[in-house]
Amino acid sequence: MKERVSIFRLIRSIIVIFWIIMMVVLVQRTYFNxxxxxxxxxxAASQLRPKEEWMGIYWGRDKVGYTVSKIKKKLKGYEIxxxxxxxLTVMGTPQRIDTRITSQxxxxxxLKSFKFRLFSNLFTFKANGEIRGNELHLELFSGGSVNHSxxxxxxxxxxxxxxxxxxxxxxxxxxxxxxxxxxxxxTMSSTPIEMIVEGKEVVVLKDKKIKCYRIKSSFKGxxxxxxxxxxGNTIKEESPLGLILIKESKADALTExxxxxxxxxxxxxxxxxxxxITQSNPSYLKVRVGNINLREFNLSRGxxxxxxxxxxxxxxxxxxLKPYHIPYPKDDLMGYxxxxxxxxxDDKSIKKKAQExxxxxxxxxxxxxLIKDWVYQNIEKRPTLSIPxxxxxxxxxxxxxxxxxxxxxxLCRAVGIPSxxxxxxxxxxxxxxxHAWSDVFVGGWISVDPTMNQLPxxxxxxxxxxxxLDKQLEIIKxxxxxxxxxxxxx
Length: 490
Known about the structure:
The chain has 490 residues and is α+β, with helices and mostly antiparallel strands. 19% of the residues lie in helices and 40% in strands. It starts with a helix and ends with a strand. The relative contact order is 0.15.
C-alpha cells in the first residue's frame, strides 16, 4: 500500500521539469540596464559598460525567487553571468532550485561558449558548450562521467541574454520584428525565436508610472512578454506558468516580500474533470478536449483517435504482436535507437546493466518486460528537481516519472529495442496530472509506464508530445489552460 501511495504522488511530479526549464529561460531573459550601455546604431561595441541587474520572481502574488545578471568586458567580447533561484513547494515539501549560466560572447554578442549549472536538493547538473565553426561541442557531466557530443549547427545560436542588446542596437520601434536562433542548455537544443515590439504602454512600479515598449517573444508556441522603458531598462516580464519578473534593487530582490508559504506547484497544475474514473486500469477512455489549439498537437496517432474535439484512447492489444529477436534488424527506426545527451544508451555502464537485466533473453517483448520490472523495482520513487539523465538515474537510483522513463528508454536502446519518451497527462485520484512514460517497438508500438509498472499503459494516459525535453517543452502551453470532460470509459 505504501508503494502504491508513493506512485500516486510521483506521477504528478513531471510538472517540476517544466518549472526547471522555465527557470533556465528566466535566467537567460534577465537583461542589463540602460539603453545607453548597449551597442546602438553607429556606435562601437566597446561602449557597453559593466552592469548588474536584479529582478524578483513572483508566482501570482507570492515572491518565490530572484534573478541576477552581470556583465563584464573581456579582452575579446564579454562574459555574462546569470543566475535564477526559486524556492518552491513540491508535494508539501520546500524545494530550492538554483540555475547559473556563464557565457562568453564576442563583440557582436555571438555565443562562443557557456557553462550551465543546476543545483537542487539531491542533484547537481553540469554542462559545458563551445562553438567551433558550425559545430557545438558539448560536455555533459552525468553519473560520475563526462559525455561528449557534437551538434551540427545551421547557424550559430545565441543565449537569450544576447537578444536584447542586439534588438536595442537596431532601435526600438513599434512593429519592429527580430528573428534569431536560441540555444536552451536545459534541453541541449536550438529553436527559432521571434521578437516583435507590439506597442507602448504605461507600467506602474512602486507608484511610479513608466512609459514602456511591450515586446513579445515567441518560441515553440510559448509566449513571453517584456516591458522595456525608453532608456532600455527591463521593468517587468510575464512568462508561462504564471511567473512574473519585476525590476528590484539587489537588497529588495534578496530580502523583501518573500512569501513564507507558497502554493504547491503539483496541486496547482492539476486538471479537474466532471466525473471520477472509478475503474482501475481502464482499457478505453473518451474525453472532450477544450481550451487549447488542437492543431498544435498530433493527438490522432497510434492508440489515440481525435474526431473534432473528442479524443478516444484505446489500450493496445498484445495478441496481434509479432516480436522480433533483438537487436532490431532493420534501419527504419534508427532515430529511436541512437543515444542522446540525456539518453546515453551507448555508455558502457548503461549497456552492461541492460545486458545484466535481460540475460539470455532475445525476444523483444520479453526483454521489455524484464527492463520495465527492473526499473520499477530498483528506482526509488521520489520527486526530483533535476534535468533527467539516464546515467544519473542509474547511479543515484532515485527519481520521478521522467527519470524512470529516461532510464527505461536508455536501457531498451542499449539492447537494440527502438523506444521513445512520451509526455502528456494521466488520471490519478480525481484529477489529471502531467506525466511521462515510454513507447517501445516490439513488432508494433506499445506504451509502457515503468513508474506505474504498466505494459501497456492504461487508457487514461493521454499523449500530447513524443521525444526529449526539447519536445516536451511544448507541454507548457497546456498548463493552466487545458480543459477536459470525461465522456466515457471502460
